[in-house]
């Protein structure tokens, strides 16, 4: 048996599930990672859990949490002459208040899909006559590669490259969630983000709210054993931060990756879709790297903009409603024609529920 197979084993999953069913108190856990959302829905874990255990999805998809105002800003930047917007493909369909980047491209704006920031930098190096802006979307997982790319642009004197940073960090969002949604008893912490930040930031949240969580991998056994851990800590009335993903996450995180983030970025307030402004939850460029900040370079400023009429992404992202409780779900809002961002990315809550059914 491949050592990873045990994390997919139906027999081991059944044994853990039997232990989970021994706990009879009501418990609500939230996962804050889009990959967990998909794993939980695709594997059918939700339908196997006893009725007293409720699962809700949080703001785990970076595309989903990008505010409408920031989408508008990216579209506005695309309309500046001689600018090329480079971005991950997911961002093309995310709606701004009037259109999206795909529409902007069809109207002749220069928008290129890239696989990562280094591709954007290469494009800038190959096209010195064009100002290339990379859209910095993502959490602590993607921020280090963007930081490394900005450092490289500085070292190589590539001046026609800049980043429109919409990066966000997870711990302040946990703080905001616990402040607004008292139903959350504990978290499944994001596996990928935790490889970078380690366990300490979660301990700060634990100290403030006395709500703990478990860092988990993405296979069914990972997720079920994380739920079992959560139940045990609730029963013992001892919330804590547990690292259940030792094969990928070190308690101290990835120090090199954090050094890249801390050298290039500084935390700043950020607007989250449907959640408003969360203090110190975004990453802007610091000091000597500010010249690579597209907002500074082109005088771009985000404006607040309400979500599309009828779209309840804000409540979905905070776990206040299930995606299918949105009246637009599956009717006027589908992955082919998304109204809100949670239906755009495959890891968005609405898209995952649409694909894997009302489980
Ligand atoms: Fe927004 Fe569509 Fe989800 Fe409703 S179903 S919350 S409109 S993304």
From TrEMBL:
Query: Which GO molecular-function terms appear in the entry?
Result: 4 iron, 4 sulfur cluster binding; carbon monoxide binding; iron ion binding
List keywords of the entry alphabetically.
Iron, Metal-binding
What's an example GO BP annotation here? Answer: protein maturation
Pfam families, per this entry?
HypD (PF01924)
Cite the InterPro entries for this sequence.
Answer: Hyd_form_HypD (IPR002780), HypD_1 (IPR042243), HypD_2_sf (IPR042244)
Instruction: Name the family.
Output: Belongs to the HypD family.
Q: What is this protein called?
A: Hydrogenase expression/formation protein HypD
The species is Thermodesulfobium narugense DSM 14796
* Lineage start: Bacteria, Pseudomonadati, Thermodesulfobiota, Thermodesulfobiia, Thermodesulfobiales
């Amino acid at each position: 048996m491949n050592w990873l197979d045990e994390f997919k084993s139906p027999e081991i999953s059944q044994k853990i599930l039997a232990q989970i069913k021994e706990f009879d108190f009501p418990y609500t856990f939230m996962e804050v990672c889009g990959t967990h959302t998909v794993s939980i829905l695709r594997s059918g874990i939700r339908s196997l859990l006893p009725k007293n255990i409720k699962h809700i999805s949080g703001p785990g998809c970076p595309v989903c949490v990008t505010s409408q105002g920031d989408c508008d800003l990216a579209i506005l930047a695309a309309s500046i002459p001689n600018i090329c917007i480079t971005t991950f493909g997911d961002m093309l369909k995310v709606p701004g208040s009037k259109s999206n980047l795909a529409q902007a491209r069809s109207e002749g704006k220069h928008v290129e899909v890239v696989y990562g920031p280094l591709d954007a930098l290469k494009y800038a190096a190959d096209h010195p006559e064009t100002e290339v802006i990379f859209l910095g979307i993502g959490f602590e997982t993607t921020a280090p590669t963007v930081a490394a790319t900005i450092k490289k642009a500085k070292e190589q004197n590539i001046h026609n490259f800049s980043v429109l940073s919409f990066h966000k960090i997870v711990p302040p969002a946990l703080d905001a969630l616990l402040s607004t949604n008292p139903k959350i008893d504990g978290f499944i912490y994001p596996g990928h983000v935790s490889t970078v930040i380690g366990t300490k930031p979660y301990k700060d949240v634990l100290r403030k709210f006395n709500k703990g969580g478990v860092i988990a991998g993405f296979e069914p056994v990972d997720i079920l054993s994380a739920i079992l851990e959560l139940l045990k800590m609730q029963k013992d009335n001892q919330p804590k931060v547990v690292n259940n993903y030792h094969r990928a996450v070190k308690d101290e995180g990835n120090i090199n990756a954090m050094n890249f983030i801390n050298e290039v970025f500084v935390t700043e307030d950020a607007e989250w879709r449907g959640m408003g402004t969360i203090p110190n939850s975004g990453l802007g460029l610091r000091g000597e790297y500010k010249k690579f900040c597209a907002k500074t370079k082109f005088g771009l400023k985000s404006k607040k903009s309400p979500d599309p009429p009828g779209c309840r992404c804000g409540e979905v992202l905070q776990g206040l409603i299930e995606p299918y409780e949105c009246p637009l779900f599956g009717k006027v809002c589908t992955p082919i024609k998304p109204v809100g961002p949670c239906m755009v990315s495959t890891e968005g809550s609405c898209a995952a529920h649409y694909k894997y059914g009302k489980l």
